[in-house]
Amino acid sequence: EFLSDETLEDFYKELHLESDNFLKIRLSTKRFDYESVAKRLVLPVNQTDWVKSGKLANVNAYYNVLSNRIILPAPILQGVFFGDDRPWYMNYGGIGFIIAHEIIHGFDNDGRQHDKFGNLEDWWAPSTKAKFLTKSQCIIDQYGNHSVPELGLNLDGFMTQGENIADNGGIKIAYLAYNEWIRRNGRERLLPGLNYTDRQLFWISAANVWCTKTEPVIEMM
């Protein structure tokens, strides 16, 4: 469908860009996005809708709770995330961590409230739900106590719990998976010039994919 001019023309037929002013163009595209979503509210759910998977050029990965699926666009399967010619501690720390992170989103504070079809449903056993809420409160408290001295602010542990749960669960799964890889295949050669073990390089690789420099105003958001 992505390669069909007819499909794309039909999808964007209501999008009209009649100005060369950036702000007006942006407002037009946002209006088109919102109207497209509103029209789908009265239509049957289409789990294979190509629009939901339309971000093919994004260097990103994401979990769609309404369709209960993970999207891994091709651009993320390269660079610091993955390479078939590099040690596997780098791949498990990179794309392995990313994939596991997205899997956990299916069971975080939002994902747990949707069934396998993406429908909103409280399907967990009461005892399971109680244990989850207890453990998730630990995550909320832990991150709520993390401060950013440069900004004089604390993280909002409640608002960020979904990502924090996915990070904690994802990195644990990826690390356990890499240890299983070692058990099956043996230890790998280390990177020259660096005095780190293979397991230490896993953690460094995981941290490296999130390494970034941002302006303070972005950090506050």
Strand fraction: under 5%
Radius of gyration in whole Å, from Cα? 21 Å
Structural class: mainly alpha
Helix residue percentage: 40-55%
Q: What's the number of domains?
A: 2
Ends apart, CA distance between termini: 36 Å
The average pLDDT value, as a whole number, equals 90
CATH topology of the largest domain: Collagenase (Catalytic Domain)
Largest sheet: 2 strands, antiparallel
- Would you count the extended β strands for me? 4
Order of helices and strands: HHEEHHEEHHH
CATH class of the largest domain: Alpha Beta
Strand arrangement, major sheet: 1-2
Rough outline = globular
* Annotated CATH architecture of the largest domain: 3-Layer(aba) Sandwich
List the uncertain runs: none
**In the CATH hierarchy, what is the superfamily of the largest domain?**
Collagenase (Catalytic Domain)
Question: Any descriptors?
Answer:
7 helices; 2 domains; 221 residues; single chain; two-stranded antiparallel sheet; mainly alpha; Collagenase (Catalytic Domain); two-stranded antiparallel ribbon
Describe the overall structure.
With 221 residues, the chain is mainly alpha-helical. The chain folds into two domains: 1-43; 60-209, Collagenase (Catalytic Domain), CATH 3.40.390.10. The chain has helices at residues 5-11, 22-40, 88-105, 126-144, 161-185, 198-208, 216-220, and strands spanning 62-64, 69-71, 147-148, 153-154. The protein has a two-stranded antiparallel sheet. Strand 1 and strand 2 (69-71) form a beta hairpin. The longest helix is centred in the last third of the chain and has 25 residues, at 161-185.
